[in-house]
Design goal:
heterodimer, A: 283 residues, alpha/beta, 7-stranded mixed β-sheet, 3-stranded antiparallel β-sheet, 7 helices, B: 256 residues, 6-stranded mixed β-sheet, 4-stranded antiparallel β-sheet, 10 helices, 10 strands, 39% helix, globular, binds adenosine-5'-triphosphate, binds magnesium ion, binds zinc ion
Chain lengths: 283, 256
């Protein structure tokens, strides 16, 4: 395909995005504005993540796309195909084989390693948006580290539900300064954000923001002393591979309302099954 | 004694138009200053300049800070000034919706300033919020209700609780009783008077209503066209006004 520049975006745009990424890495958790480009897909499909991936991919990379843990959803397949066609890069579904992983809603169970890049698709980058719609004000709050409002949100949660009910996009504090929205990953994944060996990049297309966590960054989930953060998950082992430590989806398996819990990270589950692990629902 | 607040030569113009001009006064700890004057006389402009919401074109607003003594708040850094706004200062708006988060429960509204200065025990924040709701005569059982379900008087009392929970030393109020029914006003005034006395608060109250200053203010400034035309002890100014404009203001009230 010679109709496109490598990875679709022209070199100047990629340079602009790389500058934003570098700034983001230099100031972990800080939202860097960038001039988001029209991509040949709708915003809800992760155009922010796609632009970040386009800016970091090299011909030698091996690319993986996860959508809610799975590699085979329409969204994941179309983004993977997009880069196969526009960049000619090799793709994979194996976390351990991938050098660049674009994700929506999950962090892989397999610990990532140095040299890997995890690119998140972000719908709403501003964690304070919910309570303070004025952007001039939220920008000031970030620069002055005025984050009382973030705890108001958690306070409201506890007063309404008896516990912190926020289970996705759970806010974190980065290196003791910026409060950051980790994108709608389950809070089960929050502890993996901190001290990760891989580079983590976050792209919000519609909102035109990029932010980043360099390797081994301190990331702390906000909480109260008497309501500490908990990385909760369904209290079951995986029905297919028996894993006790992975994040589970509840799936309906028959017309009679039968249910089972399976790993949301399909690559992780398949690798375990291939290694001989079996859950109670495995055929 | 060091004044808690020393205002020197505050001037604010809107283009060629004068908002307030060359206003100076000292406020001592525990004192309540009333600012009266007709609509457009510059009361809110002056108040907002003192509270850091507007930057004056000239003048100083020197506040006796806990840590470092007297500091000119006009020239201090924005983070320092915003920190003062969350701790030692409070601002009660005329319209409660300007001073409350309408989408957040009463408890969250009261707790916000506590959390802003680092409170991290939910149980403590909630206890303090309950306590403050009771102090402003709101049933603590309403702690999880949103202000949108409160009456105008309750919203105003909630705004006051939200402001006073961190134990500020100086409270700015812009028409705190404006827009409320007369009976609701009276109750709010009683409450404010009690709080000011119990907490030893210093306050600056802007109002149209001479009954408000009569009840709350130790001293009074009368403004006209951006200038202070008369200042003195409240009873003196109200009972024996010297400036023709003050005389007019007082007599117009007596006619009511
Ligand atoms: N943002 C602004 N731009 C231009 N002029 C303004 C602005 N705000 C106030 N003014 C003018 O400055 C003068 C003082 O206004 P200010 O609001 O301080 O009066 P006030 O005494 O608080 O009146 P009120 O009792 O009606 O609240 C008025 O002439 C007003 O029209
Ligand atoms: Mg006014
Ligand atoms: Zn599994």
């Amino acid at each position: 395909m010679t109709d496109y520049n490598f990875a679709y975006l022209d070199e100047q745009t990629k340079r602009m995005i790389r500058r934003a990424i570098l700034k983001g890495l230099a100031i972990p958790g800080y939202q860097v504005p960038f001039a988001s480009r029209e991509m040949p897909m709708p915003y809800g499909w992760g155009t922010g993540g796609v632009q970040v991936s386009a800016a970091v991919l090299t011909p030698e990379d091996r690319f993986k796309v996860i959508d809610q843990g799975a590699d085979d959803t329409t969204n994941a397949v179309s983004i993977r195909t997009f880069f196969e066609r526009t960049a000619g890069v090799k793709t994979t579904t194996k976390t351990t084989d991938a050098s660049v992983i674009q994700t929506r809603h999950r962090i892989p169970e397999e610990p990532l390693t140095e040299g890997q890049i995890l690119v998140y698709q972000v719908p709403i980058p501003e964690p304070l948006r919910f309570l303070e719609p004025r952007e001039s004000e939220t920008r000031k709050m970030h620069s002055l580290e005025e984050y009382g409002l973030m705890h108001v949100k958690l306070y409201e949660d506890i007063s309404r539900h008896g516990h912190i009910a926020t289970s996705y996009a759970y806010p974190v504090k980065v290196e003791g300064h910026y409060v950051m929205d980790p994108s709608p990953i389950p809070k089960f994944d929050n502890p993996k954000l901190g001290d990760m060996a891989a580079i983590q990049l976050f792209g919000a297309g519609r909102e035109q923001r990029i932010y980043a966590l360099p390797p081994y960054t301190e990331v702390v989930s906000l909480d109260f002393d008497d309501h500490p953060f908990e990385a909760s998950k369904a209290d079951h082992p995986c029905g297919l591979c028996g894993a006790e430590d992975s994040y589970l989806d509840e799936v309906i398996v028959d017309d009679a309302g039968g249910r089972m819990f399976v790993c949301s990270d399909t690559d992780y589950c398949e690798a375990r099954q291939a290694a001989g692990h079996r859950g109670k629902d495995a055929a | 004694m060091t004044p808690l607040l020393s205002v020197q030569g505050i001037t604010k113009r809107y283009g060629a138009h004068i908002g307030c001009a060359d206003v100076s006064f000292d406020l001592y700890p525990g004192e309540v200053m009333g600012i009266v004057g007709e609509s457009g006389s510059g009361k809110s402009t002056l108040l907002n300049c003192m509270a850091g919401h507007l930057t004056p074109d000239a003048g100083e607003v020197v506040f006796d800070t806990r840590a470092e003594g007297p500091r000119d708040t006009v020239r201090m850094s924005e983070p320092e000034r915003r920190m003062l706004s969350r701790t030692d200062w409070a601002f009660v708006h005329q319209h409660a919706r300007d001073g409350l988060r309408m989408g957040v429960s009463a408890g969250g509204n009261v707790g916000e300033r506590l959390m802003a200065v680092g409170a991290r025990r939910y149980g403590d924040i909630r206890d303090k919020a309950s306590d403050w709701l009771e102090r402003v005569e709101i049933d603590a059982a309403r702690i999880d209700d949103r202000p949108t379900t409160f009456s105008g008087g309750m919203q105003q009392r909630l705004q006051i609780a939200r402001n006073l929970v961190t134990g500020p030393r100086l409270v700015f109020m812009d028409e705190p009783t404006g827009g409320l029914d007369v009976s609701v006003q009276a109750r709010l005034l009683d409450l404010l008077r009690g709080l000011v006395r119990d907490m030893g608060l210093s306050a600056i109250i802007v109002t149209h209503d001479l009954a408000v200053v009569r009840l709350l203010a130790d001293r009074l400034m009368v403004m006209k066209s951006g200038h202070v035309v008369e200042a003195g002890l409240t009873d003196q100014v109200l009972d024996d006004p010297q400036h023709a404009y003050s005389q007019l203001l007082v007599s117009s009230v007596l006619q009511v």
